[in-house]
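Hi all, a correction to my earlier message: I attached the wrong file for Protein GrpE. Here's the right sequence:
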Amino acid sequence: MSKNENNNKHEKNKNKSCQQQNNNSKIVKNCNLECAQNKENGNNIQHEDFVAKSAQLEKENAALNSEIELLKKKLLNTELEVSSLKVKINQVNESFIEKSKELSVKASKQLKDAEEKNAMLLAQEKKNIKMYGNQSFYEKLLPIFISFDTAINLGMNGNNEAVQRFCLGFEMLKKQMENAFFDNGITELVIKAGEEFDAHKATATMFEPEAKKNQVVEVLTKGYMLHDRVIIPAHVKIGTKGEDNE
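and the right structure:
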């Protein structure tokens, strides 16, 4: 092979190599451009996703904030209600305590009054038993004593001296009995002729048409009291004059 042929061949190979290098550069450039475009497109997609997610998060955050504010209002209202209920409970407790004190004082007073009343009733009952416990005994004894006294008076006022002396001894016994009666609360009813008839002290057993109406004419038998209670009424004669004209 000649020298010229070698040079041509070398030149041809050189041109071929340069062309191949240029082609490779274009491919690399195109690849770089494509990668840059893809990168830019990817960034745009990521940015749009970020914006969309941010908007969604802001929306959700706004909803959460709104719900939080609503819960805060509810909590505040609940706290106000609790505070109001505490005030009412305190008022009820104070009222209950005050009412309890009033009821306690009232109950204590009523108990004290009841005890005093019972003590008074018991004392009065004891007094009544002491004063009037023997009433039935005297109601049976006094009529016998009245008959005894009447017999003595008849004997003393009679004309028989022996009987008068006999009755004089019984007169002393009668005085002793009257003193014993007096010591035990028995007293003779004081009723006099001419005074107004009192049905609480006497019983009218005889009547005088010529005497003034309801006027005591004569005391027939004595009456007796046990302390302030009439247990044996006197028997009296009273006037009835003028009754037919009324």
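Sorry for the mix-up. The helical segments are 3-132, 135-156, 161-183.
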